[in-house]
Amino acid sequence: MTNTERSHPETVSVEISGCSKEDARTVFDVLGRCFASDRGPDEVPQQLHETRPMVWLGTYDVAESHGQGFPPVHLDHSVLADVQGGYWAVDRFRHTLDSIFTVHETCTASGDQERDLHLRLESR
């Protein structure tokens, strides 16, 4: 089945912020083990400015999971994640996050075709 034949969008966009580049890498690494991504395994988050906040981006195809039962991951501090995509894709992505992190939903916005979540991820 091609992407145009699917009944729902299957990608989510993720913005990671409010954390160190090491915690951002931890989140991206585990998400890359779960789903196909536009981020390569050698693509390491960089801190380009000492005092300005950084935002790192990734897109994930949640149509197929690379596995199940991933163990919880340790973060040094909480991580902010903004997730955007179709309802089905965001729900599937959120379910995966819930299995790996303690997830706090701080804000949501729902439109006709998309859902936005603002989340705080913490170690379990």
State the main characteristics.
single chain; 124 residues; 34% strand; disordered N terminus
Write a short abstract of this structure.
Helix content is 23%, strand content 34%. It has 124 residues and is α+β, with helices and mostly antiparallel strands.
Task: Give an overview of the whole structure.
There is one protein chain. This protein has 124 residues and is an alpha+beta fold. Helix content is 23%, strand content 34%. It contains two helices and six strands. It has a six-stranded antiparallel sheet, covered by helices on one side. β5 and β6 form a beta hairpin.
What's the SSE pattern?
EHEEEHEE
Which secondary-structure class do the elements indicate?
A: alpha+beta
The strand order across the widest sheet is 2-3-1-4-6-5
Q: Beta fraction of the residues?
A: 25-35%
Our measurement of the CA-to-CA distance between the termini, rounded to an integer number of angstroms, reads 37 Å
Total strands: the figure is 6
**Number of helical segments?**
2
Amount of helix: 10-25%
- List unreliable stretches of 5+ residues: 1-5
The mean pLDDT is 87
Secondary structure elements and pairings:
Blueprint: E1 11-17, H1 21-34, E2 36-37, E3 55-61, E4 79-86, H2 87-100, E5 102-110, E6 114-122
Antiparallel strand pairs: 1-3, 1-4, 2-3, 4-6, 5-6
